[in-house]
Design goal:
It is a single chain. By secondary structure, the chain is mainly β. The chain has one helix at residues 32-35; strands at 4-12, 15-24, 68-71, 73-77, 86-92, 100-106, 112-127, 137-143, 149-155, 160-172, 179-185, 190-205. 2% of the residues lie in helices and 52% in strands. The strands form 3 sheets. It has a 5-stranded antiparallel sheet with strand order 3-6-11-8-9, with no helix packed on it. Strands 4-5-12-7-10 form a 5-stranded antiparallel sheet, with no helix packed on it. The two termini are 29 Å apart.
C-alpha cells in the first residue's frame, strides 16, 4: 500500500524485460479492490521502509525504493556511510529550491502512544533560509482517518559543515492519528546534506 514502484516493460527477443523507473505513491483503492489486497497495512506496527537507502532504482539518477516525490536527491555509495554502503544525498545550489524525499506509513494513535525517530546526518556548506520549514530537517506529519492534518513534529534544522552525527527524538502520537508522512531533505536551504540509518521504533503502546 505505501511502497510502490513505477516500472517500464520492454519486449526484447519475444520476452518482457522490466526496469524500475520511479518510486510512486497513489491514493488507496476502495471497495472490493482494497478488501482483496494481499498485503495489508499494519497501523499498530509502524516502521520506516528502506531507511538505510540500500534498495534503489536503476537508471541515470538512482532513487531509493519506498521514498517518493524526490527532489534534488539521489542514492550514493560512500565509504563512511553509517549503515551499509549507501546513503541519500541532497544537493542544492539555489536557495529556495525544493529538495526533499518523503515516505507515508500507517500508524494508529489508539494503539501507539509514542515513537522514537533516529537518523544519521552530515552536512557541507549548508545555508539556511529565515523560515524554519525551509531548512534541512526531518518532519513528520500526522493525519486522521479523513487524511486531515492533525499536527507536525520535526528534528533539526542543521546548518554549516559537520561530520556524521546521530539525531534521536521521542514523539507523542496523537490519538486520532491513522497515517503519517515523514519528510527529509534540504527544504529550500543550499549546500549538501546526507541522511542514513533512519529508523522508527515504537516506545510506548496503549496501556503500557
Amino acid at each position: 500500500r505505501y511502497q510502490q514502484m513505477l516500472y517500464l516493460f520492454r519486449k526484447e527477443n519475444g520476452e518482457l524485460v522490466q526496469e524500475a523507473l520511479l518510486p510512486t505513491l497513489f491514493v488507496p483503492m476502495t471497495g472490493t479492490a482494497e478488501e482483496r489486497r494481499v498485503v495489508l497495512p499494519d497501523p499498530s506496527h509502524p516502521a520506516i521502509y528502506n531507511g538505510g537507502f540500500e534498495e534503489a532504482s536503476e537508471g541515470e539518477e538512482i532513487k531509493p525504493i519506498g521514498w517518493h516525490y524526490i527532489r534534488q536527491a539521489h542514492v550514493t555509495q560512500q565509504q563512511d556511510a553509517t549503515e551499509g554502503k549507501a546513503c541519500l544525498e541532497f544537493a542544492n545550489a539555489e536557495l529556495g529550491r525544493p529538495s526533499r524525499a518523503l515516505q507515508a506509513f500507517p500508524i494508529d494513535g489508539r494503539e501507539v502512544r509514542e515513537i522514537e525517530i533516529s537518523l544519521d546526518v552530515k552536512g557541507k556548506d549548508v545555508q539556511l533560509l529565515p523560515a524554519r520549514r525551509q531548512s534541512p530537517m526531518l518532519a513528520i506529519t500526522f493525519y486522521d482517518e479523513r487524511r486531515a492534518i492533525i499536527t507536525q513534529r520535526g528534528m533539526g534544522p542543521w546548518q554549516g559543515t559537520f561530520a556524521w552525527q546521530t539525531e534521536r527524538e521521542k514523539i507523542d502520537v496523537p490519538v486520532r492519528a491513522r497515517e503519517a508522512i515523514v519528510r527529509i531533505g534540504m527544504f529550500g536551504a543550499s549546500g549538501e546534506a546526507c541522511f542514513d540509518n533512519l529508523t522508527l521504533t515504537v516506545t510506548q503502546r496503549k496501556g503500557k
